[in-house]
Amino acid sequence: MMRGMKDEILLRLREGNRVSGEELARAFGVTRTAVWKHINELRAAGYEIDSSPSKGYLLIRTPDVPSPAEIKAGLGTHTFGKTLHFYPELPSTQDEARALAMQGAPEGTVVIAEAQTSGRGRIGRAWAAPPGGIYLSIILRPAITPPEALRFPLIAGVAVAQAIEEVTRLSPRLKWPNDVLISGKKVAGILTEMNAEMDRLNFIIVGIGINVNTPPENLPEELRATATTLAAESGRQIPRVKLVQALLAKFETLHDEFRKEGFEPIRRRWKALSETLGTMVTVTFADQQVHGRAFDIDQDGALLIQKWNGNLERVVAGDVSLRKAPTPWRG
């Protein structure tokens, strides 16, 4: 994708040295007035640019907006995020990514929005997505069968946890199948949706929502007791651009590892981060409930529950409630 003049000027300013309007005009074959216009557009977008009649322009600070220009500056991936679509607001990044995938968008294409008006979680539930968070969807085209797609919420969960730990130094934990927790409260969620035929997967859309700098009081009232934000847990504002870059890099690394070595290495990492395994759980799916101890996850990413009679029940989907055992566990 070709860069526009504004992007070229920004790239030059990122070098960290002052550069004159005359030098920029000469380098790009435009007038100094055109350079001045683009500089003002960058300022309006949140870039702090110092100007001196005798010394030229100097980039002082960049905005913490997950725009393509910011994310791609220093992004160390070979596929993930190389094609990136940014919107100040969308009804749903999942829907936009699905439309792009149907049109043939390549693997690693990312759709990201500052806010969503109709975000959704699993089972069609609404997902609160106010400004200050990270809301993105990634298009994947793995050469796997539809049942193997069950592994991708877990792969994405490990990537989110690793990125959060790297950027914030917090210690995230994973709740099967798709939640990321800090101090027992939900800080991120993952939604995977696929397009498939009987024995062939066409694409997967992995949606990721992270509560980053949203003030806790701006979260829906019904979620404040069970949800948190990275800023609230760390006591500081978290650089969202850096977090998106880390997330895309971690996810791509795990995705490459999955293709080369299979699910087992990632399964071990997920288990090490699990808040679910070893605890008493109630899993609700359809009109049924399963009670027991979360014993393990299998090679497909399904949850194995050890019931009171010692039998194992395999669960591939459902809502998990962590709970204390009503009586001492003797399994």
Task: Briefly characterize the structure.
Helix content is 30%, strand content 25%. It has 331 residues and is α+β, with helices and mostly antiparallel strands.
Structure description:
This protein has 331 residues and is an alpha+beta fold. It folds into 3 domains: 5-61, Arc Repressor Mutant, subunit A; 68-273, 2-Layer Sandwich (BirA Bifunctional Protein, domain 2); 280-323, SH3 type barrels (Roll), CATH 2.30.30.100. 30% of the residues lie in helices and 25% in strands. The strands form 3 sheets. The protein has a 7-stranded mixed sheet with strand order 3-4-5-9-8-7-6, with helices on both faces. The protein has a 5-stranded antiparallel sheet with strand order 13-12-11-10-14, with no helix packed on it. A two-stranded antiparallel ribbon has the order 1-2. Strand 3, helix 5 (93-102) and strand 4 (110-113) form a beta-alpha-beta unit. Helix 6 (152-168) crosses helix 8 (240-261). It is elongated. The model is unreliable at 324-331 (pLDDT under 50).
